[in-house]
Write a structure and sequence with these properties.
Keywords: DNA-binding, Transcription, Transcription regulation. This protein is α+β, with helices and mostly antiparallel strands. It has two domains: about 60 residues, Winged helix-like DNA-binding domain superfamily/Winged helix DNA-binding domain (Arc Repressor Mutant, subunit A); about 180 residues, Chorismate lyase (3-Layer(aba) Sandwich). The protein has nine helices and eleven strands. Strands 3-4-5-8-7-6 form a six-stranded antiparallel beta sheet. It has a three-stranded antiparallel beta sheet with strand order 9-10-11, with no helix packed on it. Strands 1-2 form a two-stranded antiparallel sheet. The protein is elongated.
């Protein structure tokens, strides 16, 4: 499937911004210059620039040359849940290696988060995520049994679990994310190729359906050279609206962000 021209152009400009070839505060080339460089008409160029504006990467317009506002593009809710999509958006190659998956009784804390009875079973998995072939993040994921059972027979090295569950009709509607730091345990150290007790960025997530039933309780641990967290707040007429972002940095990590309203 051929990538639409304006998306390819947006990807090229996004990459230049991410790599610092066009720094924050600098102007992009004019539309005329971009048309000449890429040998295209103004239509695709304007569509590409509009996409970068929607991501919060550039500002300007109305006759003014676009200016780089940020090197961290925002992403929709779907991309925030999907490591695979976040990597792809920013031009990196995602990968994964399933370490284990089982149907078992979760510990009391996870059972409580999923609103499960103490004897209820859940599907739990451990999966290593890769960026450009290098260890980046370790997932510990727990799903209610009725949600996670299809995963037992799926190829979880093929891509995004979020995308797979969505294709199965699972209603992944909202998520609450908590970020903190944690010391690497022996499993983290072995799979992420870091020293034991070294600091990792931890993301704990509870995902719910559209009526508020918790479906997933997960804990992701990132190498500190792969991920940082950026939080931005926007004034709104809704007092409870907070916009939160997760930004990737580092030598081989995607510089991307996700925004979740009300998370």
């Amino acid at each position: 499937m051929t990538t639409p021209l304006h998306l390819a152009l947006a990807g090229e400009l996004r990459q230049r911004i991410r790599e610092g070839h066009i720094a924050v505060g600098e102007s992009l080339p004019s539309e005329a210059q971009l048309c000449q460089e890429f040998s295209v008409s103004r239509g695709p160029i304007r569509q590409a620039l509009a996409a970068l504006r929607d991501e919060g990467l550039i500002g300007g317009g109305k006759g003014k040359r676009p200016v780089v506002l940020d090197a961290v593009p925002s992403q929709p809710f779907e991309s925030f849940l999907s490591f695979t999509r976040r990597a792809e958006i920013t031009g990196h190659v995602p990968g994964q290696r399933l370490q284990e998956i089982a149907l078992r009784r979760p510990d009391p804390t996870i059972a409580a988060a999923l609103q499960l009875d103490p004897d209820a079973l859940a599907v739990q998995l451990l999966r290593l995520r890769l960026l450009d072939g290098r260890p980046a993040m370790l997932e510990r994921m727990t799903y209610r049994e009725e949600i996670g059972r299809p995963l037992l027979g799926a190829d979880l090295d093929a891509g995004s679990i979020y995308a797979y569950l969505t294709e199965q009709g699972v209603d992944l509607h909202a998520a609450r994310h908590t970020f903190d730091a944690v010391a690497a345990d022996p499993t983290d150290a072995r799979l992420l190729e870091v020293a034991e007790e070294s600091p990792l960025l931890r993301e704990r997530r509870v995902t719910t359906d559209s009526v508020g039933t918790p479906l997933e309780c997960s804990e992701d641990r990132y190498r500190p050279d792969v991920a940082t967290v950026t939080v931005s707040n926007t004034r709104s007429s809704r007092a409870d609206l907070t916009r939160t972002g997760s930004a990737w940095t580092g030598e081989f990590a995607p510089s991307s962000a996700a925004e979740v309203a009300g998370a």
